Amino acid sequence: MSPDSSLPKSMAKDRIEKKILLHAPRSRVWRALSDPAEFGAWFGMKFEGPFTPGARVRATIVGTAVDADVAKTQKEHAGGVTFEITIDRVEPERLFSFRWHPGEPGVDYSNEPATLVAFTLEETPNGVMLTVTESGFDKIPFARRAKAFEGNEQGWSVVLTLIEKHLAQAS
Amino acid sequence: MPRRPNRRSNELRGRPHQKSAPHPLDSARLFAALGDENRLRLVARLCKGPASITGLSEGFRITRQAVTKHLRVMRNSGLVRNTRRGRHTIWQLNEHRLKDVRRYLDLISKQWDEALARLRIFVER
C-alpha cells in the first residue's frame, strides 16, 4: 500500500490547510483580517480589543453579519459564549496569526496548549490568494499525552494513519 | 448519534452546528482514551484484526492485567468491544468510533470552509 497518498490532509498531518482566491484588493482583505470589528463581522464574533502581537483578546459569539441563517445558528447554539484568543504575529498585508483552543465554548482552557491559526496573503494576477492553516491538533489537551511519543513508532500521527488504513479496508 | 441536550457543548467555538459531527464531549473522551502510549499500541495492534488478551499481551512490556485495564478504558469510550468465544475473550475495534476521530478534524476543516466563504462575501461585495 502506498504510504499516505490517499489520506485526507486532516488525518495525514496534525494540521488543516485551506486556500481561497479572493477578488478584492490586498488592503481590503488585510483589513477584514486585522481589524477586530471586521474580522468579527464575517466570522460572527465581537472582540474587546485591538489585534496587537501578544495581546489576549476576549471574544463573544454574536453571529455573523454576512449570512442571516448562519448567524441564527451561531446565536442559537453559542450566542453570548465568550473565549479568548492570543494574537501571535501581525505583519501588514502578509501574515496574521493567533492562538485559540478548539473545544467547547465556555470551558476554561487558558492553561492548556492552543492551536495556531495563521492567515497568509499572497498577491496573484487574479486576486489575493489567502491561505489559512490551523496547526497543533496533536498538542491540544486530549491528544497531548500522545505527543510525548511522537518520535516513537506508535506516535499520534502514525496511529492516525493506521486507523485511516484500517477504515479504508473495512469499508 | 445520540446527543446530549447541552446546547453549549454542541458547538466548537461557535462554529455552525453540523448534524453529522460527533459530539465534542464524546470526541474529548475518545481522544483521551487514545492519549496513552500503551493504548495507542493496542489500537495499532487491533488495526490488524481482533485478538485475545494473550495475543495482545505478546510483545508488550506491561502485564496482562495492565493490558486489560487499558482495554477497559477504551471500551468505556466505545473505541473497542469484547465478545466471548468459548473460553476466550476477543477484543476488536469499533469502526464507527474510529471514524469519529477522523470526523472531529473533518468538522473543523469544514467549518473553515464555511468561515472563508463568509469572508469572501464580506470582502468581495
Radius of gyration of chain B: 19 Å
**Biggest sheet descriptor of chain B:** 3 strands, antiparallel
Uncertain segments of chain B are: 1-12, 14-25
Count the strands of chain A?
7
- The class by helix and strand makeup of chain A works out as alpha+beta
Instruction: Encode the helix/strand succession of chain A as letters.
Output: HEHHEEHEEEEHH
Output the radius of gyration of chain A.
18 Å
Determine the strand fraction of chain A and express it as a percent band: 25-35%
**Mean of residue pLDDT values of chain B:** 75
Query: Count of DSSP E strands of chain B?
Result: 3
Share in helix of chain B: 55-70%
Calculate the terminal CA-CA distance of chain A, rounded to whole Å.
16 Å
Structural class of chain B, by secondary structure, is mainly alpha
Inertia-based shape of chain A: globular
Shape of chain B: elongated
Q: How many helical stretches of chain B?
A: 5
Identify the notable features of this structure and list them briefly.
heterodimer; A: 171 residues; alpha+beta; seven-stranded antiparallel beta sheet; 32% helix; 30% strand; globular; disordered N terminus; B: 125 residues; mainly alpha; three-stranded antiparallel beta sheet; 5 helices; 3 strands; 11% strand; elongated
